[in-house]
Amino acid sequence: MYSLPFLIFLFSSSQVIYLLDRMLLSDPADSINVPERVEYAIQNQNKGKAFLGINFLLVLITVFYLNIEVLLFFGFLTFLTGIYLFFLRVLPVSEVIRALAKPVLLGIVWGLIITASVFLFYIPEKLDSIPMDLVIYASLLFFLNGWYFDKRDARGDRKSGKPNIQNFISESIHRWVIFLVPSFILILNFYFYNFSIIQYLSFYFLILSVLPHHSKFFSYQFSYNVLIDLPILLIPAIDLMITMSRSFL
Question: Which range marks the domain in which residue 112 is found?
Answer without folding.
Answer: 67-248
